[in-house]
Design brief:
The complex is a heterodimer of chains A (923) and B (113). Chain A is an alpha+beta fold. Chain A contains 26 helices and 24 strands. The longest helix of chain A has 43 residues, at 395-437. The radius of gyration of chain A is 39 Å and the shape is globular. In chain B, helix 1 packs across helix 2 (27-37), helix 1 crosses helix 3 (49-58) and helix 1 (11-21) packs across helix 4 (82-107). Chain B contains four helices and five strands, in the order E-H-E-H-E-H-E-E-H. Chain B has 113 residues and is an alpha+beta fold. Chain B starts with a strand and ends in a 6-residue tail after the last helix. At the A-B interface, helix 1, helix 2 and helix 4 of A face helix 2, helix 3 and strand 5 of B.
């Protein structure tokens, strides 16, 4: 033990400052020589110079002994590693091609790994960037019967707050999105939280201006107040420093601004304004009241387990007292930030693990390739390695050198990869998350975390081991025997079956990826060039909603009253907007064209006395008639405003809104797919609803709708849908009949109308909420964005795979040719036909590339067959590869082959140009 | 030269340990002490002393510290550690066994076989 300690100390001393160690050794040895010289002077009477000379000779080579001394201390490898790293750096410069290709490839793999890790960690173990953020907890009920989390109720909130000892500072909040009307008169919904004052206590962030909410604000009769977020204050009030004390209109209420929170404050999730949570007494019934999210802070000394134990006991008690509402409820407590962590259940973890494994496999694949390149380079340095080994370098020593080279390359790649990861997270992750989960919780930190950087370092080390040690081991195997054989010019290193497999796999991937890219780009183009059947770019769409829509459980009378009021408001708005300058027409529809309409099963009244003319040939001849359709509810003016012609029959009129007037208009696809070209006018159709099949039992309660007209296809299928579809329109009153999107036909740019529209809406009814304002032709933009990102990702993957396989083929070939230089020289000297020599060289890479292309095609064909055969509703079709596109793929394969041959040309020319005599002497 | 003997491999460490066991010494002192206690009969390549010293230090058998020499110069002094004392005892015993065995072998005459 003591010896061990001494060793460590001695080692540490050398490690700490090798230079100082060296200097101390020099000093000690110089002292020795001087003492000896003095003795020689004293005892033998020599003069100073001669004594010194003799003493130096007697001592021997000082440098040699110092080196030996350092080795004795176990420090030798350190100096060696330093040298290796330096050499590795030089190799980077000496082989720029390898550096660029290998560095880019490893960098790409590390980038993917880091981004995936960061995102996964963000979901799996998020941390709250708040003082003692890990002690803030979220409490909720779990419905064990439905296996679903239940929204918290104010009753539970009250019970928990009164009874629990292990959790303090209880609070609750509720999402609200009231319209905020600022001084400019514009009315816009804001993401606000109705929250207990304790929320501000838990976050303990002082406001920039004024004060946060306090308990007194929660009292039933307290004056209405609001706290603004920094962003909202800047955007809507131009950062007015005198905002505190002013009154703003929130929905129908005038509230006083009491404070402004600093930039970045978004507790509880991603909120920009805060109102006091004022529960009415009625809401306090068990299981009733508005849904709230409940939070608290662990009491000092209490752990999460303590809190869970206490809560479980409490839950059991409540379940006994109130079996009606709480029998199936189990309360649970969790770290606050885990609220949105996609449940740490087995399924989600499996998905995350799979994603991680995929990223890891990518790295392994990429690094195996780089290993191939490094191996080829090491093989060309075989003689150097053999000489080193003959001079006494151990096998380990040589492998370590190759590892050091890979490490240097990996370090450069890691820096590159982390930089790219940083950019990717900034540029794409935010919009990606926003597209998927809405506004991003404030604790989602998208800058690279230290853990991610550490993980990337581990990835780099792993990559370096793969890319450095594997070729090192292979190149040093049987060095002794090769030393003897080396001069004979035969045997030596060979590329084994594994490398062949790697190259074949690579080429297969480069063939398969473009097929994916092709499908995606086809989809992109299809969506982009979707013909809506009307001049969509002249129309503005806006989603209309009204606050205070009565929740479930409200009696039908209240519901009807609300609807009627909404209908009146919408009608007023229509008249006001229509009278605005530049507005050509205003109409309403429940779903915008190209969005995902609900699909309904239908039944046709085939007994209708409509003479069935022979069906003209249609695209879907031979297929059974479709028995489902998408349904849209429209204002009767819809087709007029869209300026689209009625192809047959008539359009809707106001009279069609009358109860009992059950009419419908269908589009051309409906005629083709459902009726197979027969005349639709006068036919009756029944639409499944409320779980009743239109042709099943109870269908008699469903009304028959008479088809009165036919129109063009007007985007009744979602952008992502392909395949057969049909569309049907029902007339209804906007607001009272359906949640409307207002569609406004304008002269000039439709978006220019937006500010005016907001102002008009605010005067009509402040509770009217306007969202999703955009041009009708831009409805699919989000979808296009995701598709475009997928397209770019595929392109990058393809280029990396392509680059790597080309480099691999090039490396293997130049290696093979270099090995056979002498053979080629001899054959050429003996008058061998050049083309035969060439065939001999090309045969192997050609077979490899050929096999790769075959496998790639098999994958594409299998994928196509599988997806088109088994998943008919798959949004992205694979079955749609036309003959032209197949030809494109074949052309691409030919191109691949050509590029591979090109990679063969350089080394081959080098070999053929070799003079026979030179070739003979080459070894 | 006839009265001096070259060192057997592996014996330098033993001699250094012995020399140092007699008192704290700097490197040159170790050389002088070995010459002194061996009656000047053993020849040591002077520089070779140092790698051996470092090795022994690395093994924890001796320890070093900087001090001032008899002529007031900075020098590094070596001292035996507890582990070194044990090690020396074992080495000496083992050397004696070897020397006895070899002496016994060399004394053998044809009559004794």
């Amino acid at each position: 033990m003591k010896t061990m300690f001494a060793r460590l100390r001695s080692f540490w001393r050398g490690m700490r400052s090798p230079d100082q160690e060296w200097a101390e050794m020099s000093e000690e040895m110089r002292f020795h020589v001087e003492m000896e010289a003095e003795r020689l002077q004293r005892e033998r009477g020599l003069d100073a110079a001669e004594a010194r000379r003799q003493a130096t000779v007697a001592f021997g080579g000082e440098e040699k002994y110092k080196e030996a001394g350092r080795e004795a201390r176990g420090m030798a490898w350190l100096g060696g590693l330093r040298l290796d790293l330096k050499l590795g750096g030089r190799m980077l410069v000496k082989y720029p091609g390898l550096t660029i290709i290998g560095g880019l490839a490893i960098g790409f793999a590390i980038c993917v790994g880091a981004v995936v890790f960061q995102m996964v960690m963000m979901f799996v173990s998020p941390t709250l960037p708040m003082p003692e953020g890990d002690r803030i907890v979220h409490l909720r009920n779990q419905d064990v019967e439905a296996n679903d989390p239940m929204p918290g109720s104010l009753y539970d909130f009250g019970v928990w707050r009164e009874s629990m000892r292990s959790v303090t500072d209880f609070g609750a909040w509720q999402d609200v999105t009231p319209n905020l009307i600022a001084h400019d008169g514009e009315s816009r919904p804001v993401q606000a939280a109705a929250i207990t004052a304790s929320g501000f206590g838990i976050a303990s962030t002082p406001p920039t201006l004024g004060r946060p909410l306090v308990q007194a604000d929660e009292a039933a009769g307290a004056p209405p107040v609001v706290v603004l977020g920094h962003g909202l204050w800047q955007a809507r009030f131009a950062g007015d420093p005198a905002i505190v004390g002013q009154t703003v209109q929130l929905e129908g209420v005038y509230a006083t601004v009491i404070g402004v929170m600093p930039d970045g404050y978004a507790f509880p999730v991603a909120h920009e304004a805060w109102l006091p949570l004022r529960p009415s007494v009625l809401d306090d019934t068990p299981g009733g009241g508005p849904p709230v999210t409940i939070f608290g802070r662990l009491a000092p000394g209490a752990s999460l387990e303590d809190a869970q134990a206490e809560l479980t006991t409490l839950g059991e008690r409540v379940a006994l007292e109130l079996p009606e509402t709480h029998e199936h409820l189990q309360p649970e407590v969790m770290p606050y930030a885990h609220m949105f962590a996609m449940g740490l259940d087995g399924e989600a973890l499996t998905v995350f693990a799979l994603v991680q494994v995929f990223a890891l496999m990518l790295l392994v694949l990429v690094c195996s390739n780089v290993a191939l390149l490094l191996f080829a380079r090491a093989a060309t340095r075989e003689s150097e390695i053999i000489v080193r080994s003959a001079l006494g370098a151990s096998r380990r020593r040589i492998v370590v050198q190759l590892l050091a080279e890979a490490l240097v390359l990996g370090a450069v790649a890691a820096a590159l990869g982390l930089l790219a990861a940083h950019t990717v997270l900034r540029q794409w992750a935010v919009p990606f998350l926003e597209a998927n989960i809405g506004s991003i919780p404030f604790w989602f930190d998208l800058s690279l975390s230290p853990a991610t950087v550490l993980y990337a370092c581990a990835l780099t080390a792993l990559g370096a081991v793969i890319a450095g040690v594997l070729p090192g081991l292979k190149v040093t195997r049987g060095l002794g025997s090769r030393l003897r054989e080396g001069t004979a010019g035969g045997g030596g290193l060979r590329f084994g079956g594994i490398w062949t497999a790697v190259i074949v796999a690579q080429v297969a991937v480069t063939v398969a990826f473009p097929a994916v890219a092709l499908v995606v780009s086809k989809e992109l183009n299809r969506v982009r060039s979707y013909d809506l059947g009307f001049a969509a770019e002249q129309y503005l769409a806006v989603n209309l909603q009204m606050e205070a829509s009565p929740g479930a459980g409200v009696d039908s009378v209240t519901m009807a009253a609300h609807r009627a009021r909404f209908g009146t408001v919408v009608e007023t708005l229509r008249q006001r907007v229509a009278s605005e300058p530049g507005v050509v027409g205003v109409t309403f529809i429940d779903m915008l064209p190209l969005t995902n309409y609900a699909d309904y099963r239908i039944a046709l009244d085939d007994s209708a006395s409509v003479a069935a003319p022979p069906a003209p040939a249609t695209a879907s001849e031979g297929l059974p008639p479709l028995r489902r359709t998408t349904v849209a509810r429209i204002d009767p003016s819809y087709f007029d405003v869209l300026e689209t012609p009625i192809l047959a029959g008539r359009g809707f009129g106001t009279a069609d809104l009358a109860p009992g007037a059950q009419v419908a208009i269908v589009d051309e696809s409906f005629v083709d797919e459902v009726l197979q070209g027969r005349n639709p006018i006068g036919r009756n159709v029944r639409i499944g609803a409320g779980g009743i099949a239109p042709d099943g039992p109870g269908a008699g309660s469903l009304p028959w709708h008479e088809i009165v007209g036919v129109v063009n296809d007007l985007g009744m299928t979602g952008a992502a849908e392909v395949g057969r579809s049909a569309g049907l329109y029902l007339p209804a009153a906007a607001g009272s009949g359906f949640q409307p999107h207002m569609v406004i036909h304008t002269q000039g740019d439709p978006v220019a109308l937006v500010p005016r529209l907001r102002a008009v809406a605010a005067t009509v009814d402040p509770t009217l909420r306007l969202t999703e304002l955009r041009r009708v032709d831009q409805v699919t933009n989000d979808f296009l964005w995701v598709l475009g990102m997928w397209f770019r990702a595929t392109l990058v993957m393809t280029s990396v795979a392509l680059l790597l396989s080309l480099a691999g083929i090039y490396a293997v070939l130049s290696f093979t040719v270099a090995r056979r230089t002498r053979e080629i020289g001899v054959r050429v000297a003996l008058g061998a036909n050049r083309s035969r020599v060439l065939t001999g060289i090309f045969r192997r890479p050609l077979m490899q590339v050929g096999a790769g292309i075959m496998v790639g095609f098999l994958i594409v064909t299998a994928g196509t067959g599988f997806l088109s055969g088994h998943v008919p509703d798959q949004p992205i079709t694979w079955g749609g590869l036309s003959a032209g596109q197949a030809a494109l793929l074949v052309g691409y394969a030919a191109f691949m082959l050509g590029v591979c041959l090109l990679a063969c040309v350089v080394p081959t020319r080098r070999a053929l140009r070799v003079e026979p005599m030179v070739a003979m002497r080459v070894e | 030269m006839t009265d001096s003997a070259a060192l057997l491999p592996g014996t330098l460490d033993l001699l250094i340990l012995k020399a140092v066991s007699l008192g704290k010494l700097h490197g040159y002192g170790v050389l002088l002490r070995i010459e002194q206690i061996s009656g000047g009969a053993l020849q040591i390549q002077q520089g070779a002393l140092y790698p051996a010293l470092y090795r022994l230090e690395h093994q924890g058998l001796i320890e070093s510290e900087w001090g001032v020499s008899e002529n007031n110069r900075r020098a590094k002094f070596y001292r035996l550690t507890a582990a070194g004392r044990t090690g020396l005892k074992e080495e000496v015993a083992s050397w004696n066994r070897l020397a006895d065995a070899i002496a016994l072998a060399l004394r053998t005459t044809p009559q004794e076989i």
